[in-house]
């Protein structure tokens, strides 16, 4: 393998390792914050972090022994992760809207989601760049998962902030519904094999 491809592959693995570590910390922190605030959105975001952990693990596995079979399996697994995310968000948003559930906005939730959004957008850009340089559809597709994670963090942040500032408890689940459309689109793309 040429040195530049090996270097790019290592960079891709490093980005996935950072994503993996960030989300492992996030799952624990979000579970605590969701429990303390009663926030379904923060709990949902924690579940999204679990999906991202799974997707990063798939990409690291694929990059350590890339071949066409691993790429097909990797892309399908990421597509399934998008489906699970879309279904969860649809059910969560519907349940919150129907029940009128009102969480207690916490500063910790606002801070973590804001920081996560910035980190995920940066990681998604790096994965896209390296994935395209490697012509690796699995890394490119997982970069989209990371982008969705950043968008979801922004939506959760907006929902918590609007609730904290104006008492708009329904802003959070409505923002989650926007992500459902994007997640379904990316799931279809991935499950078709990542074809453009």
Notes on the protein architecture:
- By secondary structure, the protein is an all-alpha fold.
- It has one domain: Alpha-lytic protease prodomain-like (Up-down Bundle).
- Helices cover 87% and strands 0% of the residues.
- It is built from six helices and no strands.
- It has helices spanning 3-37, 40-63, 68-99, 107-134, 137-166, 171-191.
- Helix 2 (40-63) packs antiparallel against helix 3, helix 3 (68-99) runs parallel beside helix 5 and helix 5 (137-166) runs antiparallel to helix 6 (171-191).
- It is elongated, with a radius of gyration of 17 Å.
- The chain starts with a helix and ends in a 5-residue tail after the last helix.
- The model has no long low-confidence stretch (mean pLDDT 85).
Helix content: over 70%
Task: Fill in the CATH topology.
Answer: Alpha-lytic protease prodomain-like
Shape: elongated
CATH A-level architecture? Up-down Bundle
Strand tally is 0
Could you state the oligomeric state of the chains shown? single chain
Proportion of residues in extended strands:
under 5%
CATH class: Mainly Alpha
Total domains? 1
Overall mean confidence score, pLDDT: 85
What does the largest sheet look like? none
